[in-house]
Amino acid sequence: MSVGACIDNVESALRPYVESGAVPGYVAGVSVDGERRIHASGATAIDPDASAMSPHTLFRIASLSKVVAGVLALTLEQDGVIALDEPVDRWLPELAEPRVVRDVSGPLTDAVPAERPIRVGDLLTLTAGMGRFLPEGPLRAAMAKEGLASGGFPPSFSHDEFMVRVGRLPLAHQPGAGWLYHTGIDVLSVLIARAAGRPLRELVADRVAVPLGISLEFHAREPGRLATSYEPTDDGLEVSDLPSGPFARPPRFESLGSGLVCTAADFLAFMEPLADGGGALLSADLVRRLGSDQLDGRQRAAAQAFFGERWSWGLGCQVKLGEGDTALAPGGFGWNGGKGTTAYVDPSRGLAAVLFTQRGLTGPQVPDLFVDFWAAIYRGL
Predict the structure, then answer these.
(1) Does residue 1 carry a pLDDT above 80?
(2) Which of 9, 35, 243, 373 is surrounded by the fewest CB atoms within 10 Å?
(3) How far apart are CA 326 and CA 344, in angstroms?
(4) Computed over its alpha carbons, how large is the radius of gyration of the chain?
(5) Helices 183-196 & 159-167, crossing angle to 10 degrees?
(6) Hey, what domains does the chain have and what are their CATH numbers?
(7) Model confidence over 26-56: pLDDT tens digits?
């Protein structure tokens, strides 16, 4: 196996995307059995005066933050701070008596008491009954009105205000009866901070970043290193966030759902232990738990309606079940970020790889750019 061949293949496969302007630039990283290579190409913005991409460029990692949430939650469970099978109301009284709409498209007032409490694990597996991409109806409208359905940016209010808003809405389904994207991890963010009695920024630093010698922050301490973020449109790429935007300053809501900033090189260093038994982060048993399918048949069907039948969901990450969609082997796990990032591991090969771009995703479907990236890596193996 050749890490150099992987990176050479990646450079060849992604060159047309940069040359055509489909992406302004990217940083890719590959590690196999601890041997690693980082490659940067293009620029940090569509601007003739923009800096060249480099291993030091910062990106909004968006939903890759969810993988960090899974690791952080398991470290806290390991130390007895939380337990995934515990009801959440010990720390989240706002969810002590949840109600559930009879019809997810029907009126909010037509709701019944939940059949069981929401558990901590329901938040991490996204099966608690709250989340984005609901069908049209009053609940979806209420989520938007409460500011709970935003895109790749964390909520603009405090943890406590967030829970007040979440707590006054009914659930879309009974706890454990389905799967809905995103919101559960932001609720988990509040629970973890309350349970530990410390801000998330300190927990992420002490339990993840410092042991690995990396930087993983909720804002860019050096905004000048932050790449400009774009969204694809019919007319090309449009700016969605500048280096001087929300991620240039400490947020009101520290979000493990979509709130972290990192370099590709540092995030590769975070993923490497997950490909190799846990290292300084987790025991081998906990890594296997993190990256194993946590859903039952009904939950899995709901998740696969979102991201495809070859996948399922673990503890804050997506799990590959079968061949197809990308070259990643079954048993691999990781996730994609809506701001244009992807990071997975293949433990059977000791492989970890990341690709950070500024081109936002248009949905849960794997974009051609990512398909070509993973195909290039596996050709190198």
Answers:
(1) no
(2) 35
(3) 11
(4) 20
(5) 130
(6) 3-73+199-380 (3.40.710.10), 81-196 (no CATH)
(7) 999 999 998 999 999 999 999 999 999 999 9
